[in-house]
Specification:
heterodimer, A: alpha/beta, Rossmann fold, globular, B: mainly alpha, MetI-like fold
Amino acid sequence: MTHMISVSNLEIVGRRRHGPAVPIVRDVSLDVAEGQMLALIGESGSGKTTIALSLLGHARAGCAISGGRIMVAGHDVTTMTAGELRAFRGRTISYVAQNAGTAFNPALSLGQQVIEPARVHWSMTRAQAEHKMIDLFRALALPDPETIGARYPHQLSGGQLQRLMAAMALVTDPEIVVFDEPTTALDVTTQIEVLAAFRSVLADRGITGVYVTHDLAVVAQIADHAVVLRHGQVRESGPVAEILGNPRDDYTRELVAACRIPPRTTFPAPVLDRAVETVLDLSGVIVGYGRLDAAGLPERRILDEVSLSVPRGSTLGIIGESGCGKSTLARTISGLQPWAAGQVTFRGEALAPDIARRTREQRRRLQIVAQNADMVLNPAWRIGASIERVLTFFRGLKGAEARNEAARLLDMVRLPHALLDRLPGELSGGQKQRINFARALAARPDLVLCDEITAALDPVVAAAILELMAELQRELGISYIFITHDLHAVRAVCDDVAVLYGGKVVEHNSSQSLTTGAHHPYTRLLVSSVPEMRAGWLTEAMTARQAGRPEPLQVAPQGGCRFFPRCDVRMPGTCDHNPVPVQILPGGARIACFTNAAALVPDGDDGSCPDFHNRPISGTDSPEEVRHDDPASF
Amino acid sequence: MSAGLARLVARRIGTALCSLVFVVVAIFFMTAALPGDVADMLLGQNATPAAAQALRHSLHLDQPLWLRFMHWCAGMLHGDPGTSLLTGRPVSEMLAPRLYNSLLLAGATTVVSVPLALLLGLACATWRDTHFDRVMTVLTLGVVSVPAFLIATVAVFVFAVQFRIVPALSDIRSIHSVGQFILTFAMPVSTLASITMAQMIRMIRACMIDVFSAPYIEMAVLKGVPPIRIVLHHALPNAIGPVANAIALSLSSLLGGVVVIETIFNYPGLAQLMVDSVMLRDVPIIQSCALLFCLTYLFLTTLADIVALASVRKGRGA
């Protein structure tokens, strides 16, 4: 069999200025047959991107290919001159970067950049290239294929940019495309569409591919073979089904296990029972910007009449796509973003919208853990100093007392005491996130706001953090608000979950029932978009989606439901005009939808009744009661 | 131009106007606080208290400070900066030829230094950490660290006194051909340009290195784009804002350098007039010169910010 890519005994070293050479990639060998897709799997620092870039003969600043042979489409990449490499890159082999938002030049129009590979290789005329580009846009299901090229990167969404980047890679008809985590930065709902678009385009053109990722579920959809990497070495390689279904290496097993976090085992408290003591209660909170309307409220709403409550000792998950208002909610509760209307009650006391007007006690009891530990920990302060400062500020501890307490907190987050004398730069991402957590715990909070705390971590590390959260809750009885876009994580740590869409809570339910029972159409879309770790899932999901789904509308409705343009059970005339009713189900779950709850049960589940489909609810046939957009009901 | 950009530009100009008001007040009261008295200076040996008093009265120097300030401001608003205390000629008449000469010198320096600095700054950033870059770094840091008068004096000593290639003094009335123009301006322009260029090269290099580390530059490399196209087409448009600011700051510091250079080469420009007027306590001329320098500085920095705003708006939008 001929191999399109054949790498043998590859060695790549990194070198700081005047420092010794440190091996980054050691003795890596891999082969990819023509028309096949190889996945490079590994956590950050495993050398997967470094290997992918070496296929294009590129090493980042400070790195160098120091040994081995890289044969790509008959070329020996390691012996090519700069000029030969220029002719080779973008023509024979092209690259799709992880973050299209930063990999596109903000000062140039997208069309200019997409046809540039064809122009700099003199492979076609401008007109031919533009024609080709429009064909590719159409194949990748981009909106307005004729005119989208005239736009600039900031005018498009992340998912659209990622598809444009694929078009840029394909415009010269290369033999090989290297994908570097192309969907990691996307929402699940977008990821599924981008994956489907990539797969169909690659299959049509018989392109050989290399796909770098840490997401095994994505690997199952798109790759034929996989190589598992750790610390720059190959741990295991073979067909995808083999690696995911029957991993032989310990590390691969750990990776596979991390993608299958068991759901929370403790029996959840009854959902939304107001009799249970609540720690935090939001009612009718509005946050926005722009001009004020007649009622003195902002015209553009980031959060629109959000009402939620967190029972003591439980975890409320907040899910939704980027831009739905998740992080604004965290900033609002913590007092960094004052609200325009509504009320927030914390332990029975009303909270001031502005953090400067909250008492020290209130601030101590409500702590936030941010997504990026690097932005929280002062890089010039030792870990001990960062934690001790919180202890001194909130609890008046000083000297040896503070030192001992800081050590105790490190025990709590399962870190060795030696870290107290280290600087944040010397710690790994997972360790920094644990320190970030310890810093919040140092204040002895009642409620901790966790804003995407696992988003920047590798799956194995993230799973350990989630486990730690649950343990600490059992030990200390703290409550959490857990903001995430990762539904696996929600199931692992949350009791309840609120689904946010366009600043509105569209559903409030128990986290264990996310896959069963009645759900808001948006929740169903979210749940069905999370890739499963088995081959063929993507095909099934896309077929199911195309069968029952009307085309998304491009215009937003003036009133009514914000999800209307993307909804698969939308009823024009009803959903886009009237105030959205809130249905309360027998279990206590709330769904803001016009379609009767009984019709919102997924197909194949007990209780689904086709008769209910697309029948608007009236006041009488609702399960328990219906309130028409009453802010107090949420 | 979008409405958002127009608003931002208007706000930036508003800020500049506020600075201008502050500058006007500061100039007037600082020059008023200068020690010495023009009446004593004019009368010299013959100064009797009565004569000095009479002269002060005729020059309105016995009026309270705030009244003189109001008169001065009113005059400025009408475009009349007053009359020289010594010669009695209108300040504007004395300033005009000097301003022309100074602008000529600054213009010639700009024309020489900006393109060269851009080229060298880009080259340093492109070939970062090579021998070329290291030599340029040593040279630019050396020039930045040495005071302007020393460079000018050494230049005069080497080129005018030892080699006799160029005249030591800039007698611009004797210019009748392009060759003479170049010979006369060679010394002051090259001295001024070397100082401003050194600063510009450092700052342009830093801006460009920042842009070169962006992911879209790596993407361009991986697309097989040739290096020159990467620099000019991908990197430069994203560096316009900071580069424009670097150039404006250097050019406005050029005006500070002008005072020293004009004095050393005896160049009949604005700065020399100002230095002479300080000696003679001719306050209206000092005020007008200072105001002109400040105006140029304000104009250049405001212009650079507007260019930066426009380039950011174009690229990243609202």
